[in-house]
Amino acid sequence: MPPKKIILAGGGTGGHIYPAIAIAEGLNKTFPDSDILFIGTDKGLEKELVKKAGFPLKTIRVKGFRRKLSFDTLISIKELAHGAIDSLNLIKKAKPDIVIGTGGYVAGPVLFFASIMGITSVIHEQ
Length: 126
Known about the structure:
Rossmann fold; 5-stranded parallel sheet; alpha/beta; 4 helices
């Protein structure tokens, strides 16, 4: 049975977004009745590229970690907590059959909660 609802999570750089768009376009051709949703951030390239490709994009708050402990690290932890809640809410609402992560900080919380919820989860990284 083909997947009906698909989430693609990835972002930040073209190396994460372009493969996600290629996967989405391939899935659209193979399973034209499927609903595809991208989850990314509002600061990465995905904001422009996903829209240009014609796919819906929902955003979550997430930020990379610095290698040194600093005040910015605390902000990153706070953003990760918000991103986790955002991810959980988006997954509950979308009820996907499969979640595909293509990299970037945004993919972590989305794949984590999808996996915990028993949703088929795939990581595509090159």
